[in-house]
Amino acid sequence: MDPIVRFAPSPTGFLHIGGVHTALFNWLYARHEGGEFRLRIENTDTGREVAEATEQIQESLRWLGLDWDGEVTFQLDRMEHCRAEAQRLVEEGTAYEDEGAIRMRMPNEGSTAWDDLIRGRIEYPNDKLEDVVLVRADGRPTYNFASPVEDWLDGITHVLRGDDHISNTPKQIQILEALGAPLPQYGHLNQILGEDGKKLSKRHGATSAEEFRAQGYIPEALVNFLALLGWSYDGETTVMSREELVERFTLDRVGSSPAVFDFKKLEWLNGLYLRELPPDDYADRLLTYLREQGFEWDEEIVRRSVPLVQEKIATLGEYPGFAGFLFGDVEPDPELLDARVLEEAERTLTETEPFTTEGIEEALRSLSEQLELKPREAFQPIRVAVTGSKVSPGLFESIELLGREPTLERIRRGRAAAA
RNA sequence: GCCCCCAUCGACUAGCGGUCCAGGUCACGGCCCUUUCAAGGCCGUAGCGCGGGUUCGAAUCCCGCUGGGGGCACCA
Predict the structure, then answer these.
(1) CB A98 within 7 Å, strand B
(2) A264 contacts: CB under 8 Å, gap ≥ 6
(3) Which of A48, A76, A89, A265 is deepest in the core (most CB within 10 A)?
(4) CB neighbours of A374 closer than 8 A, spacing ≥ 6?
(5) How does strand A95-98 pair with strand A101-104?
(6) How many CB atoms lie within 10 A of CB A54?
(7) What is the torsional sign of CA A26, A27, A31, A32?
(8) How far is residue A212's CA from residue A268's CA, in Å, rounded to a whole number?
(9) Which of residues 208-247 of A touch strand B (CB under 7 A)?
């Protein structure tokens, strides 16, 4: 039987990276096994629901390429069904009314156990199980009731979720058994922690898929990175495409210990994926990114700048700071300028023919020789005057792309500022 | 407090009793390349939490401890 799994976020805000991790593992499992991956919004807590969240979660999943099967379902839509099931339990005597709410009687002896897909056998003493509320006094089912009922309704065969749900599992198993429903198999994924070993939160940096997107990370990198948090193929292979991940993903290689989110490694992976992109693709993504971030820069120049930046930046977010000089004035630090060098550079570049990367390089190299300066000594003031920074794309390419007049203009201004 | 889960380099991990004086990747350090910054190449530092067992033999199995995390809601 093909597995049916689900990702069931609650719409309380942006999709948290931990949620992405859970969604990814479910998705990889479903795709690898040829099963189904469903998306269900757990919105029984109407009080905490954020209006935009439902759409944002879907948008994030689409961006990441985690496509789901069938229609998105909403927990609240199944409210009536849940109520009816709860009523049935009351009639059968396994549940009872308590101040308007319906609670289920939990056993006090023995233990509830299951063979966790990734942790092996877990036993939970029943005397620690409280009589869980199935339906609130206002008629809305609780998460711990609606969730298993829906898993049953949807024919979910495998529940893969964060290990913070371990203590909910015995309750849900008891509920399903009382209902006479089949049990899915449960697997509890490892938690993702911040650098300090605490649960990943705001103060560690970006925590939502949206934030990573805004910082210029691309889905391939994020997916590859997250897959490696709690799963490995052979311990040696690090870089894997989405297809390779799907092909290689198996539950028996999923680990159970918590993993610290390593932003540096993500950045490295992102840079790697960015560098491997075909230039046209890179340009398209960069353009889309810049537009999303509110930069309305000339498309042609952005495209032509791709070869200058692709090897150099690890996130798209670095582009404005790195190549922004191509689109607007710069404010160089006068301390880093050098009037004599700039005067000679202006003279040289006025006459340079052809005004191409090669021509410019040749001209400036002979300039540095004339001035008896090391290349770096001669080029740095020019770089600063032209790009406004000590760090920039290749100088000659940058000058060619900027154009002769704008370059000369900046050098003139640099001379004035230096003097 | 009670219950549950987890435990290999700073980080992610490989290792499922001998082939491990523990391998890969990021980070870090050094060197090379070099117009800056990256990228790239080469080299290197660094780890089985502790204590008991089991066994001819343990990072690998068992127990305890310690440490970390999670849960104990009419939140999800």
Answers:
(1) yes
(2) none
(3) A89
(4) A368
(5) antiparallel
(6) 16
(7) negative
(8) 14
(9) 228-230, 232, 234-236, 238
Residue–nucleotide distance: A255 CA to B39 C1' (Å):
33
The spacing between the Cα labelled CA in A132 and the C1' in B61, in angstroms, equals 38
Average pLDDT over residues A215-241: 96
C-alpha A346/C-alpha A406 separation (Å) is 11
pLDDT tens track for A334-370: 999 999 999 999 999 999 989 999 999 999 999 999 9
Determine the nucleotide nearest to A48 by Cα–C1' distance.
B75
Collapsing DSSP to helix, strand or coil, A391 comes out as coil
> Separation of CA A198 and C1' B48 in angstroms?
24
ipTM, two decimals, is 0.95
Report the distance separating Cα A245 and Cα A268, nearest Å: 19
Residues whose CB is less than 8 angstroms from the CB of residue A141 and which lie 6 or more positions away in sequence, other chains included: A44, A75, A78, A79, A82, A83, A86, A134, A135, A149
A23 vs A232: CA distance, rounded Å: 17
Length of chain A: 419
Helix (H) or strand (E) holding A365: helix A357-370
Predicted TM-score of the model (pTM): 0.95
- A122 CB neighbours strand B below 7 A: yes
Which residues partner with A122 through β-bridges?
A114
